[in-house]
Amino acid sequence: MIDESDLAELRSAVLTGVTIGIGSQVLIFENGVTVLIQCPFKSINNDCERWGHGEEVATSLLVIDFLNHKVESARLEAEGILALDFGSAGSLMIVPDSNGLESYVLTTRFGVSPVLVI
Question: What is the pLDDT of residues 38-83, one digit of tens each?
Fold first, then answer.
């Protein structure tokens, strides 16, 4: 379960890498935090919303837009949605599937937190 200490690890962290693979995309932050995405996500910048999916390689460009930007705020919203605000670069909303399978995994120095919604 993601708690406030996990979210605090994301705040002020810079997104320094994105690993793109078949079946998932992994956000890598400069402080060692990672977010493995295997579910839908929404990229919002310049008043434009675009949807992608962690399992679709073609939509990785939406995540790459946030490279080298700092997370201004991180919060966990209803239904397990992870909201990351990258300031002027925009925001990223990771929206778990409600199929009972692991949708995304947040890894911090406090542990591994898989997110699934039933």
Answer: 999 999 998 899 999 999 999 999 999 999 999 999 999 999 999 9
**Residue range 26-44: average pLDDT?**
98
Beta bridge partners of 73: 85
How is the chain split among helix, strand and coil, in percent rounded to 5? 20, 45, 35
Enumerate the H helices of 18-66 as residue ranges: 61-64
Cβ–Cβ < 8 Å for 105, 35 = yes
Pairing of strands 73-76, 34-37: unpaired
Q: What is the DSSP string of 55-106?
A: T-GGGGHHHHTTTT-B-SEEEE-GGG-EEEE-GGG-EEEE---SSSSEEEEE
Higher-confidence residue of 4 and 117: namely 4
